[in-house]
Amino acid sequence: MQAVNLCLGKELFRRTDYHDFASFQRGRKVMACRFAMILPSARLGRAFAMSNRCHTGAVAYVRSGVFLLALLLGACASIGPSTPTFPALQNRAPVEVPDEDFQSVSAPMEEFLDQYVPMTDSAETRSWNMAFSVTNRTVMPFEYDPNLTQTAAQTFASHEGNCLSFSSMLVAMARNRGLKAWYQEVEIPPQWSNVKNTLLVSKHINVVVEGSVGQWVVDISGERAAISRKVKRITDAEALAQFYNNLGAGALVGGHLAPAYAYITKALRTEPNRAYLWSNLAVVYSRNGQRDDAAATYQIALEYEPNNAVAANNLYLIYENAGRHEEAQKLLNRVERHRRKNPYYLYHLSEQAFSEGRYLESREMLEEAIEMNAEEYRFHYELARLLATEGNLVEAQASLDRALELVPELDRVYNGWTNGVQLDSLPPLPN
């Protein structure tokens, strides 16, 4: 199993609907706080909150049910060649992926901007209108889709996408109106989810739009913490690299290794100094059976970012599986320290404890995993099995009911689950 960072999140604040431009204009003066959150910012002047959490790229390799922590850290050194070279993907027909103008502004976008952000207004008014119009459900009925990475024009046309897509659309439109706008990466605690045996770990991106007096932070989650947390301005080149990387990660999750290789190497040619991109490429090699190339590529990731948990975890596993125990031992302390922060690793340890009859220890680890991620049905299902084994049928039924509420329909069919499943015969979940 492997872990990929893509975009995750959901809208947390209701937004006011306006049915015509006049009411939109009136609303921006007196109704601002009803649909999102506008906060004063000592550094930026003010903050307009409406964002999505976003995964933009690290992939962790997992063997034998052990899920690995995937953290994306911002620091990187300026080392290595400016134009990197990569070992070929063996036994796969090469795939060419196009260059994307991911910030192009389409004619429909121009029409929208002429209506809602006219150039006749002052820069200060334009900056507010820009932020307000894209966060209003009637003016811009944007729907969040964590799996959809698109260009700015595609995102505007469909009114859906992940946070990187939304941010690219806003940056492109703001600049079209003569405004300064840029991407920000927001530091958030790592959050995990599991999709197709792939762990997803989130990053978060928002946008700053500058007027003549101050700036607006446009953050689609509406979370106050997204405004107050530590942020880092990132370049257009890094945003483009994350765009290609998201497409590559999506291909990887789908089992399409040649397109994954093509997109991730294109991301690296755009931004060769990003450790998480090298780590993702190493996963592609590993899934293709190129263990030596994978190990060498993880080493490059660790040269850029010595504390990168993804690369350290995955390189440790390659060494262990190859019998290179002395090299693996050098990474072990770092690996274990980060694994304990991963709810899926705790889940794995709980399964081991359960199979060995250490029920109390198994339950404690499951409850800790649920505290980290209460939306993962596997945790609740395994807790139901454990509680039923201990004879606590009332709590077991409650945990099973919760698992069945959360489980995707396809998983329910695949596992043969029904609402009449017997507590005393719950089978282990398949790996």
Short description:
The chain has 431 residues and is of the alpha+beta class.
Describe the protein.
The structure is a single chain. The protein has 431 residues and is of the alpha+beta class. It is 49% helix and 12% strand. The strands form three sheets. Strands 2, 3, 4, 8, 11, 12 and 13 form a seven-stranded mixed β-sheet that branches. β9 and β10 form a beta hairpin. α15 runs antiparallel to α16 and α16 (377-389) packs antiparallel against α17 (393-406). The protein is globular.
**Extended strand count:** 13
Count of alpha and pi helical runs: 18
Query: Portion of residues in helices?
Result: 40-55%
Regions with pLDDT < 50 over 5+ consecutive residues? 1-81
Mean pLDDT: 77
How far apart the termini lie comes to: 9 Å
Please give the radius of gyration in angstroms: 23 Å
Structure class: alpha+beta
% residues in beta strands: 5-15%
Oligomeric state as shown: single chain
The dominant shape is: globular
Major β-sheet annotation: 7 strands, mixed
